[in-house]
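User: Structure please.
Assistant: Input sequence and predicted structure:
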Amino acid sequence: MTPFARSLTGLDKYRSTPLPTGWPSQLRTLAVPVDQVNAALTALLSSAATSIRMAMYSFTDIALADILAAKAHAGVTVQVSLDSTEMTQPDQATVLTVLQTAGAATSVGTSEHNAYMHLKDFVIDSAVAVTGSVNLSHSGQYQQDNRLVVIRSPVVAAEIEARVNAVYTYQTSKETHP
């Protein structure tokens, strides 16, 4: 059983301040730059047992890409959709290569309206949804004012996973890898 299978309280150690008494164990929020968001993301991604499905506008964190690659090598389904406008960032191109080399399913493109694919969402094991404004970049995880929201709910995860899958399906039908 993964560390977050029943509760998200394991993420509390990454917060700079405690949550209020009575806060639901299925919901956690963290804030950049005051909380340890990268450490929380590392723990979350490392916990995946069956799948990680992601749509991420900016993904330049090579260490997090390496976690996804290791998961893909271990047989976890890893699917990542990226925005094509961010592919000019050298580290984003490196992330894409790392993921593809590991056998992860990847797509690069726009939204269905030919605009930015600006999501910052992923779902772990169809049960834990991660959303908010945090890009998987140095500035997104350490410098900018951003919010990471983690929800342990198969119902919420299914809704977010459906959108992430729709982005992947659209992008792969229009594939334009750099």
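The chain has a mean pLDDT of 95.
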